[in-house]
Design goal:
Elements: E1 2-8, E2 13-16, E3 26-31, E4 34-35, E5 42-44, E6 48-51, E7 60-68, E8 71-82, E9 90-91, E10 99-102, E11 107-110, E12 113-114, E13 120-126, E14 142-145, E15 157-160, E16 169-177, E17 180-183, E18 187-192, E19 198-199, E20 202-203
Parallel strand pairs: 1-8, 10-18
Antiparallel strand pairs: 2-6, 3-4, 3-7, 5-6, 7-8, 9-12, 11-15, 13-14, 13-16, 16-17, 16-18, 19-20
Length: about 210
């Protein structure tokens, strides 16, 4: 287990690591693998650790090591400090990028945004249920889309290789962090039959 904790410089960071066992376990806190050194900013209770007035020197991996005569278990917390005012993700170049492709071709959509907190990027595709694009509360129907045969290492890109008619539709990226989420304007992907590819200025279906 490894939880990410993002906090502002000068604020407090809280870590909680509860466990139970027989015989009753003991807990030891480590920072970056070394025994944790207490000072006036540190408050420890049985299963929790609190750091006050944190700064960049406090960044690192905090580990609670819980053990008894039967064994041990550990939990990690990664603390990141930001000196800047955090903000909700901001979409950059928020415009529609509609694309028309043929069956078997590749589609690449890019999500451009700014965020100074730990964030998550998801691509969604909208769909209809019984002819309606929203539910009874007005929430759009949509599902999470994974890159198809593409490089998933860059979540800003949605790469769809060897597209089929099932890939046609309306897409958007959603970026979220602890302060909220933002989404770009939707992009339409239109997929045409491979037989309609125009070669040398004429339709391949034409005699």
């Amino acid at each position: 287990m490894n939880d990410l904790i993002t906090a502002f410089s000068g604020s407090s960071a809280n870590f909680r690591c509860a466990a139970d066992g027989t015989p009753a376990p003991d807990i030891i806190w480590l920072k970056d693998g070394m025994p944790f050194e207490k000072d006036h900013r540190v408050r420890m209770q049985k299963w929790s650790l609190k750091l006050d007035n944190i700064n960049s020197d406090d960044e690192g991996i905090y580990t609670c090591l819980i053990s008894n005569t039967e064994g041990s278990i550990s939990f990690n917390f990664t603390l990141e400090i930001t000196d800047k005012k955090a903000f909700q993700p901001i979409i950059i170049e928020d415009f529609s990028t509609n694309q028309t492709v043929y069956v078997g071709q590749t589609v690449v959509l890019e999500c451009k945004f700014a965020s100074n907190l730990h964030h998550k990027v998801q691509w969604v595709k909208y769909f209809e249920v019984n002819g309606s694009s929203t539910d009874e509360f007005g929430v759009p129907y949509r599902k999470i889309v994974e890159a198809k045969n593409g490089n998933g290492a860059n979540p800003r890109l949605l790469i769809l290789n060897n597209v089929t008619f099932d890939d046609a539709g309306k897409y958007a990226c959603v970026v979220s962090d602890d302060l909220g989420s933002s989404s770009n304007k939707s992009s339409w992907i239109t997929v045409l039959p491979e037989s309609l590819v125009v070669e040398h200025g004429r339709n391949s279906d034409m005699p």
